[in-house]
Amino acid sequence: MLTSFDEKAMDFRHAVRDWLATAIPDEWRSFGGHMQSPEALRMRRDWDRRLYDGGYAGLTWPVEYGGRGLGVVEEAIFYEECALAAAPEGLGRIGRGLAGPIMMAFGSEEQRARYLQPILAGDEIWCEGLSEPEAGSDLASLRTTARPGQDGYRVSGSKIWTSYAHYAQYCLLLARTSDSAPRHHNLGLFIVDMRDPGVSLSPIRQLTGEADFNQTFLDDVPVAAAEVIGDASEGWKMVQYGLRSGGQGPTNALLRYLEVRRQLARARQCATECMSSDLTELEWLQTRAEILRIHILRVIEARASGLPEAGEAGIIKLVWSELEQQVMRFGFDLGCPVHEADWRFAYFRSHSVTIAGGTSEIQRNIISTRALSLPRSW
Amino acid sequence: MPVTTKLLPSADARMAVDALNSVLAAELGDAPLADRIAAGPDAGLWSTLSDGGWHLIGADSRSGGADFDLLDLTAVAELCGRWLICLPLMETILVNRWLAGRSAGAVAAGTYCLPADRSGRCLAPYGSWPGIVVVRADRGVAGDAASRPDEPGGATGTEDRFAPSLPMLTLPARETGWTDEAAADATALAAASAVGAAAAAMSKALAYAKQRVQFGKPIGQQQAIAHRLADMYTDLALARSAVCWATNDADGRVRGSAAAARLAQTVVDGAIQVHGGIGFTWEAGIHFYLRHVTVCQTIIRGCAALLK
Lengths: 378, 308
Known about the structure:
heterodimer, A: 378 residues, alpha+beta, Butyryl-Coa Dehydrogenase, subunit A, domain 1, Butyryl-CoA Dehydrogenase, subunit A, domain 3, 4-stranded antiparallel sheet, 8 strands, B: 308 residues, mainly alpha, two-stranded parallel ribbon, 9 helices, 53% helix, 6% strand, globular
């Protein structure tokens, strides 16, 4: 048990644990294949449905939209228990964590009625169309355009790092709606049907050899006026809201902490059993991992209590990603011949964590301007 | 395993910190640190604090305290470290916590004595403060009053004034009478005090980065400086969490306190670097924070030896 809040939270934890004990299918427990294989995808899809049937699909969603109306504490506990129980990861993350919350805040009544329930039920999978080949850290400079036409828009351009694009029915897509409006007020947010013939995909092979992501091409894809979310010039604001509120910052970090802790335990095994390495650096990494755990819990507690200390949330991504990378590098550098392949893979893969979701350099820019109020240099 | 981990200071503790901050701000103001320290301890402030009962705040309410737990007290210690008050307030708060409910009663000024280190020294923070009482944590007895060099039969040791905000008197080797709980208290408060000093150094560096112009713009507008400050802010936030860990479980007492001080030290190192040339002058005073942090580490090491 890593998080431990009050008695009520403990009751919730036990309920989740009991539910997970029966909800996770045996075939998943014994499954050793690739997460993108057809069997894995079938089980992951089923998992979304089980979450819904069990009442765990919309933990933090308001009750009026079919959620449970719970807070950040329960969310953290739920995902922590899922990680400890090695539960499947469904395919509905973008819908539940980004598209849904944005639609609840800015969408039309028709959009909420049409899309929210299928997201919760796991019937419709969403992907996000934000980054572009020429718009990475500088996301607001994106070039995919949405031109107004008869009864809606036509969207053309390309998006990159689109996870889940293979299975998604819908894409939450940010596109330029004006060439003259000021930056951050020239983007619209659109619901794009991924089954449109104008949408095509090309998988991106990563440095590990895996292909989890795609480049998505949009060639004159029609989007009806009813599929524009909110004000067609305020997409930036809505995406910022979505990434902040549904982005699972501390909860996601808690899961990464669990992964770091697992890898540190393996590294200790390699350092002591396979090799006889000096443990000084390992112990410092372990100390930092434990501090990260307390820090995440403090941020969660502060948010739940409505305290300003929640501001220290801004460092979390920088901290976990750099720590995770250092741990993998450390494990690799041990030179353990027994677990060489595992460490190679973990080390190579860890290069993505300080890049994806906002590079460490961008994180430092954000900290220096938002938390420290330093003048922008760009 | 405890059901509840306490992660944030109580509302009462946050209010107390705000109130104490107002007192300190009114008395210490924004006088340059080097001048203030050169002028010696502020007797007026010490009377104000004593009159306000701040030295009792760590005791239970029957003994005039506020029923604060250790995490609450770390918030007070961080504030004292931030101001470098140069008064034995945290030491007195700590020993009055140990003395609460005991027949001997509270002391007006008190401290503790660390166990002998490898060179045989027994160090007592503020041990030569006039009238201070060195308290044994295990007995809670206000004995051993005659431990000052100015008293007949008192200690003959020397005082290390490396950190003016944390002078350490060497006492003759003795039984120091620690309990695990007392060592946990002392180490967490020393860690919090170090974090406070680092927070103050960070604030000064940040203000300097916004005001100091080179190449036609504030140096804080250079990413090289801004990112260094972002890292310092990050380390400082983690140091606070490490202090919280130190108050929460046995493992954290030693590792959390040591890590907090180590991170705090890195922050102060960064603050000196951001200040450039002025950062290593005496008058700029950033070194007083570094001195404070390093002597806090001496206390933390002493407590770690007890807790192992």
